[in-house]
Specification:
alpha/beta; Nitrilase/N-carbamoyl-D-aminoacid amidohydrolase; 6-stranded mixed β-sheet; 8 helices; 14 strands; globular; hydrolase; C-N_Hydrolase_sf
C-alpha cells in the first residue's frame, strides 16, 4: 500500500430527471468537468444517474436501460474519462441479454474497467431489475483497489466485509437514499450512520454520491459524504435538497496505519474467523 499516491475524490450530488437520459448525461458531464477542474482523480455519481429512479413499467425500463459498456451512457462517460484523464463511477440502468440491472460502471482514461450489479434490490426495484449476479468485484487501478456497492447494499455489513476481504481500498457508493421508517427528518441520516460504521470497521475509504429532489412522489434525502478509513467524514454530509460537489483527498498508502488502532489491535487482523467465519 505504501506506493499508493494521494487520490482526490469527488461525489456529485444532483437531480436526475426520470426518462430523460440525454438531459441527465449533459448534467453529469457538466458536473464531472467541474469536479475535474477542482482536482478530482475519481468522480462518483448517483444511482441510476442516467435514467432516473422511479420506473413505472417494464416498457419504460427497456427504453431507458442500455448495455454496459457498449451503450450510449457508458460510452459517453468512458469518452469523458479518457478526455479528462480521470476515473468515473456512475450508477446506470443496464440491459444485458434481455434482462435489466441496477448497475454501476467504473471507467478510466484507458476505457471501461468493470461493472457492478446491485445485489440487494429495494422496494419496487424488484419489479424491474434482476438481482446482481457479478458478486462484489474489486478492481486494481492506478488510484488503488476500487470496489462498488449501490444504495441498499450498504444496509448489509457483509457487503463491506467482502470488499475488505478482497482488498478494497476505496469503495464507491452510487445511491438514491430515501427517508427511513420512523426516522426523525432532522436527525442524521441512517445511511450516514451505516456507512460511517462500515468505513471504520473495515478500514477503507467510502465515497457516497446521493441524489436530491422528488421524483413521481418519492423524495430523496441528499446528504452525500466522503469518509475517512477511520469512519469520520472528510467531506459532507452535503445538503439535504440542493445539488453539490464534495471534494476530499485520501491516501490509500496510509490504510495499513489507519487499521492499526493501537499496539495490540488491528481492525482486520483481530477478526476471529475461527468463531464466525
Amino acid at each position: 500500500m505504501a506506493d499508493r499516491a494521494d487520490v482526490t475524490l469527488a461525489c456529485i450530488q444532483f437531480e436526475p430527471i426520470i426518462g430523460e437520459p440525454d438531459h441527465n448525461l449533459a448534467r453529469m458531464e457538466a458536473h464531472i468537468r467541474e469536479a475535474h477542474a477542482r482536482g478530482a482523480d475519481l468522480v462518483v455519481l448517483p444511482e441510476l444517474a442516467d435514467s432516473g429512479y422511479v420506473f413505472e413499467t417494464m416498457e419504460e425500463t427497456a427504453r431507458l436501460a442500455r448495455p454496459i459498456p457498449g451503450g450510449a451512457s457508458a460510452a459517453r462517460l468512458c469518452a469523458l474519462a479518457a478526455e479528462l484523464g480521470l476515473h468515473i463511477v456512475s450508477g446506470l440502468a443496464e440491459e444485458a441479454g434481455g434482462d435489466f440491472y441496477n448497475s454501476a460502471l467504473l471507467c478510466g482514461p484507458d476505457g471501461p474497467i468493470g461493472t457492478y450489479r446491485k445485489l440487494h434490490l429495494w422496494n419496487r426495484e424488484n419489479l424491474f431489475f434482476k438481482p446482481g449476479n457479478l458478486g462484489l468485484p474489486v478492481f486494481d487501478t492506478p488510484l488503488g483497489r476500487i470496489g462498488m456497492a449501490i444504495c441498499y447494499d450498504g444496509w448489509f455489513p457483509e457487503t463491506f466485509r467482502a470488499l475488505a476481504a478482497a482488498g478494497a481500498e476505496i469503495v464507491c457508493i452510487p445511491t438514491n437514499w430515501v427517508p427511513m421508517p420512523e426516522q426523525d427528518p432532522e436527525a442524521e441520516a441512517m445511511a450516514n450512520v451505516l456507512h460511517k460504521a462500515a468505513a471504520h470497521s473495515n478500514g477503507f475509504y467510502i465515497a457516497c454520491a446521493d441524489r436530491v429532489g422528488t421524483e413521481r412522489g418519492q423524495p430523496f434525502i441528499g446528504q452525500s459524504l466522503i469518509l475517512d478509513a477511520t469512519g469520520w467524514p472528510l467531506a459532507g454530509p452535503a445538503s439535504r435538497s440542493a445539488p453539490e460537489i464534495l471534494i476530499a483527498t485520501v491516501t490509500p498508502g496510509a490504510l495499513r496505519a489507519k487499521r492499526q488502532l493501537n499496539e495490540f489491535n488491528n481492525i482486520l487482523g483481530d477478526r476471529r474467523t475461527d468463531v464466525y467465519g
